[in-house]
Amino acid sequence: MLQIGGVLSGIVLIAFGIGAIVLSFNGRSTVNSSLKEEQITGSPDMTPDAIAGEVSAAKAAQSKVMSQLQAAGVNIKASPIEAPSCSVAGKQVDTGSEARCFAHYMRIHTFEATSGLTYSQMGRYTAKPGTPIKFTDGLGGTNDSAHALTDPKTQQPVNNGRRDIWVTYTALTTALNSSYMATQLALFGVVVGVALLLAGIGFIVLAYGALRDTPTGKAEPVAATSSA
Predict the structure, then answer these.
(1) Under a CB-based contact definition with an 8 Å cutoff, are residues 10 and 196 in contact?
(2) Quick one: which of 27, 69, 79, 225 could link to 74 by a disulfide (CB 3.0–4.6 Å)?
């Protein structure tokens, strides 16, 4: 019974291991194919050296806005702007790692367009000319509808178009980072599959080795050694 149970358990584990490996490779292949269909290619500045000037410019613009807002009594903290260590310049993005790298460079480009402000730090509406800086985000946006421009047709506050850049960025990078997460999960599936295969083989070896019976149905005794 122990032999049969060990063999059956080993076969089941091996089957699950093979299934996990196959599913993982299929999942990774699907992610790579989907990315390739989008035809995403890294721009020439998507290398650590090429993007350095843009990072410095974004940091300078961010520092200027933060100084103005803090001087006006606004409690705000700068978000870090750092150049990635990877490179996808001129490359077609067709793997999860490249998608994640591309997303990092997109963040720098977005900071350039918003002078270092994140989505939550920007005003929802477009501020009226002459609005005190403490009621704005330092770039002409405001969250106070009383200081917002009003659309003459709808009589509603005018949305801050600069803030919409972050909406687009968030949507795209979420998809790119999801591709990276999917490839990592596929890699984890391969590791689990290999572990199941080894465990299954171990069960079978244990069943045929350590639990092997003699023809009489009794376990083989350990041979005693005689002393000289």
Answers:
(1) no
(2) 69
